Amino acid sequence: MRRLLVVSLLAAGAAQAKPPAGSVFCAKYPTSPECVGKQPSCAYCHVAPPQRNGFGAAIEANLAPGAPRPLSDGDFSMLLPGALTAVEGLDTDGDGATNLVELQRGTLPSDASSKPLDRACQGDENPQFSVCRYDLKYAYKKVLLDFCGASPTFAQLKAFAARPSDDDRKAFLDAEIDRCTATEFWQGKNGQLWKVAHPKIRPVGSLKEGEDPGAIPLADYYDDYALFAWTQTGDRDAREILTADYFVRRQTNPTRYSKVTNLASQRVDAAHRAGNMTTAWSLTYFVMFTALPRNAASQMYRAYLGLDIAKQEGLYSVPNEPQDYDAKGVAAKECAACHATLDPLSYPWRNYNGISSEMFATRYVPNRIELGFRNEAPRITQIPERGVIFNQPVDDLRGWARVAADSDAFAISTTTDYWKLLVGHAPKPDENAEFVATWKRFKNDHQYRVQKLLHDIVKTEAYGVP
């Protein structure tokens, strides 16, 4: 998944961010897969901004050639569609597909390894499965492996094949998914759900307290896994991974999760909790000793919204940003394009404390900057708590969480997590139509219930065609 609202153009070595780029692109190519709930990545035009790839260089050569740089936003928006038209017939990466075809299909016109695939299926019947179309027997084997962790026995396969109709076999598949998602393999410690959560929580054993403590026990991230597992199971709203003002207790042998108001291992008061963004582990590991927790903001943006600012994804430049309140040099031209988004994303963390000997650790501390960091930079106490996410102003981190949780980005990222777990890879261009339909159902029809999302993924051709 990719998002971008910034394209960099060069003028005598200087880069100028162009916030209209993504919206102009999507106005011209509204059916592009990169414009369904998202906007195109920097990778379309850049190796890394401001360095352009072949496609970006071709656009620049046709974008008001000879005109002084940087162009104004107005001129850029007016001229970009013509420059895109001028390069549509080219094949800038030499992969045999024109730029226009790649733009329409969602592949990269600058990467020869990213190209549309139009090969007809070459298979037919084989002794095991019906290739080239959805095969219920194949799906059944995958369901038991993916959800229960074991292949079906010969007797199970024979019994499945002997069921009276395809409708009966489909109903049995649904029942098996529900049965298996209640098992240790799915919900237990280091099970499938924990596997999905690993890159979000980023556990470090040496710093763990509680069960399985490390050498320097600072926080118990098993609490984070418990909240994740709770929100991803049953008839529960997955958005509460970002918005919950409660915690979840894990019991073992067998694994069971239960919702609780407070945990001894968690210190943020209920009025300032925002799911796994404000747990003791998140504040310990992602805030640590930092005045302006940019790392916490970028990790949550990446982990739960699928947008990696380090890859220039999800950039929504805020006017007059970055202010560089902590005097880190982020207003430099090499940094400003990303920090115009990142810093306003980070402001709502200003009162969430990580590790400090001067104040209470892993708590919400009003006037935290004034109490612990006032001497770090002349303007540091001016850091506001009010921030901006997806061009929407928010008063605090709970507001940040609400906007994030309700966004297309959250639905796309969550669907991508389980697509990768079950299908085995991120959605490919030829799977895009199924993928888009799936994440839209997850958001609009299923109201963010992961259990229903799992059933939908199993029904896709991406999952069930051998």
Topology:
Layout: E1 8-11, E2 14-17, H1 21-28, E3 46-48, E4 51-52, H2 54-61, H3 73-87, H4 99-105, H5 136-148, H6 154-161, H7 166-180, H8 184-187, H9 192-201, H10 222-231, H11 240-243, E5 247-251, E6 256-260, H12 280-287, H13 294-305, H14 333-346, H15 368-372, E7 387-389, E8 392-394, H16 397-405, H17 408-423, H18 432-445, H19 450-458, H20 461-464
Helix pairs in contact: 1-3, 2-3, 5-7, 9-10, 12-13, 13-14, 17-18, 17-19, 18-19
Would you give an account of this structure?
With 466 residues, the protein is mostly helical. Among the domains are: 8-105, no CATH class; 275-399, no CATH class. The protein is 41% helix and 6% strand. The protein contains 20 helices and 8 strands. The protein has helices at residues 21-28, 54-61, 73-87, 99-105, 136-148, 154-161, 166-180, 184-187, 192-201, 222-231, 240-243, 280-287, 294-305, 333-346, 368-372, 397-405, 408-423, 432-445, 450-458, 461-464; strands at 8-11, 14-17, 46-48, 51-52, 247-251, 256-260, 387-389, 392-394. The strands form 4 sheets. It has a two-stranded antiparallel ribbon. The chain has a two-stranded antiparallel sheet with strand order 3-4. Helix 12 (280-287) packs across helix 13 (294-305), helix 13 crosses helix 14 and helix 17 (408-423) packs across helix 19. The longest helix has 16 residues, at 408-423. The radius of gyration is 24 Å and the shape is flat. The two termini are 25 Å apart. The model is unreliable at 1-17 (pLDDT under 50).
